[in-house]
Amino acid sequence: MNHLLYGLAANPALPPDLLDRMVALSVAADPDDDDATMLDLALGDRTDLGRARAQALASRDEATAVRLAYGGQLDADDVDPVKWPGPAVALLDEGIDRPEWARLLAVHPDPGVRWRLASCPGLPPDVVETLAADPDTGVVAELALWATTTEVATRLALHPHAEVRYSAALNEAADPAVLAALITGEGLEPAVSCLVCDAKDVPFTHHPYCPDPDCELRPGAECDGAHGSTVLETWERAARNPSTPAGAAASLAGHPSMLVRWALAERSDLPREVHARLAEDPVPAVREAVAGNPAVGEELVRALASNPSQEVRRAVAHHPDLPLDVLADLARSTRIGPVLLPRIAAATPRELTELAGSRHGAVRMLVAQRRDLPPALRDALATDPDAAVVASVAPHPGLSEERLRAMVAAHDGRVAAGVAANPDVPGALLAELARREPPVRKALKAIAVHPHATAEALLPCLADSKAARFAAGHPALTPAVLVGLLADADWQVVEAAAANPSLPPSVMEDLVRRYTDPGVTRPVS
């Protein structure tokens, strides 16, 4: 098999009889064949597969059946939970109402099945109790993470095994007082064991790059009898959990672990003095999290706007309540990039007009990212002397062909990619942009996926290594060009061409016949 076949399997114009033959080919393949698995994936993503074909594919192996169940291609009548526990769990996970399945699978001999069941929504209370008492710690820990009732989540947060507490620390259904106790230790019995001391003689520290492929310990896990790494990870999770009382979380503000302080910096309910302390953290990632926190007030935002870290200042630029004068200063000192900032998205027409009149092109460029600008303001930015501003406004809908051509004439290749991305750009202009020398690679990629692109415009895209894979899937390509692409050296181009709905049915027939008819010579993969 090869990428021709994968592409054909995804082709929406594949005739039903050829689809039947490809399903039969997949079913007959070796279950351990990676190529056949890729074919299954492509077939399983089709919207016209139908129940009979889905059942046929599901018969190949349980892994395929699980994917089809999650993809909505199988229903309860297609699955035997005794024979196929995997797809049965998948359907339960998707919300199917079969409590008898849950009871059956809760005592399945394979702990992996019970572990997957523990994360399913809407489990009957008796099943939850069965899983909570499971002899496998991993199953109980998974339930602790996903339990939806306060009683169960809280009970598991008090579990004697540190790994179960670690999972429960992230569960927002757990009682706030117990989540606080996971941090402070008040009224909480020490954990009896953890995954490290379950498996190793302590003291033990797990190598961060453990070569054992079967080892399930987390990198850096360690235990000297007090379950150190798991307790630390539990603090981090509890600090991140919005159900944990702010006071208990704030007590970790001076913790030596950067990960704990980072988790705190993202909370919106901490006292101002805690955010101020974290804003001076020696680790840029912690300061960056504070800078992007919507709960941080103007005073702290202004202070962080002058932080020496580029990443911190960029996070400040994304703050939703950023003062406009600070935004203007940041635009001149920080590489923000061509993105629509929250403060720009929320700006009033008057504020937009004020910003668009800035003498700094970096500020005007930020305004140009809005795609709902008033026509007069949009057209004014389209005639801006700064090419970066024009390139930013170029994809804005509503610009006339005359205006788009004037933008290209004034700034040439510097705005070509933006113009090529405009939803209203005509095919003739796309063809001109595609033929320009030297080529603008970003423009070629935009042309390759544009619905207005013509066959003429797509040909130069096929000569570009990055744009070719997108152009090969464009329905405007002629059949002759598509057939030629089936032999391209780039497998992504081949797959895209084979998936192109403009590929002639006769060519599809010939390709499928190569793989499904005995005695026909097949191409080399």
Q: Which SSEs are present, and which pair or pack?
A:
Blueprint (H helix, E strand, L loop, with lengths): L2 H8 L5 H13 L5 H11 L5 H9 L3 H9 L14 H9 L5 H7 L5 H7 L7 H8 L4 H10 L3 H8 L4 H7 L7 H9 L10 H5 L4 E2 L16 E2 L4 H13 L5 H5 L7 H8 L6 H7 L5 H8 L6 H7 L5 H8 L6 H10 L8 H4 L3 H8 L4 H7 L7 H8 L4 H7 L7 H11 L4 H5 L6 H9 L5 H8 L6 H8 L5 H4 L7 H7 L5 H8 L6 H12 L9
Antiparallel strand pairs: 1-2
Helix pairs in contact: 1-3, 1-35, 2-4, 2-36, 4-5, 5-6, 8-10, 10-11, 10-12, 11-12, 12-15, 13-15, 15-17, 17-19, 19-21, 21-22, 25-27, 30-32, 31-32
Largest sheet: 2 strands, antiparallel
Strand order of the largest sheet: 1-2
Strand content: under 5%
Summed over residues and divided by their number, the pLDDT gives a mean of 94
Helix/sheet category? mainly alpha
